[in-house]
Amino acid sequence: MVITGGLSPDKKKHILLTGPNSPLGQCFTSRLIKNFPNSKIFSLSRSTKINNFEKYVTHIPFDLSNDSFYLSQNIDILIHAAAAVPATTKNADEFFKINFEGTKKLIEKIRFSDDAKILNISTSSVYDEPSADILYENSKKTKNDPYGLSKLMFDQYLDEKFKNSLIQVITCRIPVLLVKKVKNNFLSNWLKNIKSGNPITLFNPQSLINACVTGNDIFNFFFEIFYQNRTDNLTCNLSSSEPIKIIDAATFIMETIGIEVGIIEEHNNVKAQLISHDLAKKNGFKPATIKESLQSFVNYV
């Protein structure tokens, strides 16, 4: 899918991507190269190079927790996918140092075009309303989880900074990300165990699930909104449509890859929660069904 219109591939743009070597960053880089072949793409990460796309992207080694930033070009599109995440961050202070303080300093140093577009990848961990069946954008927010709180603080900073400008911010709160080579979420762990022939453990297997989204669906939504030539900010949840039971999701994955393993069913007091994507859908999001998302994820691996 090649996007045309206000963000035409024929119009040269300066694009900046953070976290290019993450699974989501790699997905976005591939799509940016295909959709904007005439544009200049820059990337920032701690690594000394960008994986797989060296000849297409100008990579700048950069540590969000320490480094300062300078780039002479005006940035037309910023995609912020870098983050300190629970699977790799042991010190709670690091969440705030990287996800809020360091990224805020980066934003202050970037020279944006007057009508720049920003995609901010956030998380459903900003929410803490354990009794709710469905999480909405106005659901109760966390006050204790350092990861969710650090991301929430940055979401709020971006919205406040650009609310009276022509620069548009889209903050997408992601539950479980389904993208090639992603690790450390429960669906990737299921898949790893199934492919290894090991049993999987399901908590509250009769509960419904829709709390996942593919990288391509995120990308398509971002540029669908900008094609509308809007300037208002938007903070919304993304998730799959047509929820199914957790046990049916596990069975579907096994059927798709042709491997059947044992299922250990357990129950706990943590409620499985659906993620509303109604607001995103009103603004052009076309969510895949949960089965389509799982099918795509299995095909990635």
What does this protein look like?
- This protein is an alpha/beta fold and 301 residues long.
- It has a domain at 14-177 and 212-239 and 276-287: NAD(P)-binding Rossmann-like Domain (Rossmann fold).
- The chain contains eight helices and 15 strands.
- It has helices spanning 23-35, 92-109, 146-162, 186-196, 215-227, 246-257, 278-282, 290-300; strands at residues 14-18, 40-45, 57-61, 75-80, 112-123, 134-135, 168-174, 176-178, 200-203, 208-209, 212-214, 234-237, 244-245, 263-266, 274-275.
- The chain has a seven-stranded parallel sheet with strand order 3-2-1-4-5-7-12, sandwiched between helices. Strands 6-15 form a two-stranded parallel sheet.
- Helix 1 (23-35) links the parallel strand 1 (14-18) and strand 2 (40-45).
- The chain is globular.
- The two termini are 21 Å apart.
Order of helices and strands: EHEEEHEEHEEHEEEHEEHEEHH
Q: State the helix count.
A: 8
Radius of gyration: 19 Å
| The named CATH superfamily of the domain at 14-177 and 212-239 and 276-287 | NAD(P)-binding Rossmann-like Domain
Low-confidence parts: 1-7
Which whole number gives the mean pLDDT?
Answer: 93
Helix content: 25-40%
The CATH topology of the domain at 14-177 and 212-239 and 276-287 is: Rossmann fold
Largest sheet strand order: 3-2-1-4-5-7-12
Main beta sheet, described? 7 strands, parallel
CATH class of the domain at 14-177 and 212-239 and 276-287: Alpha Beta
| CA-CA gap between termini | 21 Å
CATH 2nd-level architecture of the domain at 14-177 and 212-239 and 276-287: 3-Layer(aba) Sandwich
Q: Which class do the helix and strand fractions yield?
A: alpha/beta
The shape is globular
Estimate the strand proportion. 15-25%
Number of DSSP strands? 15
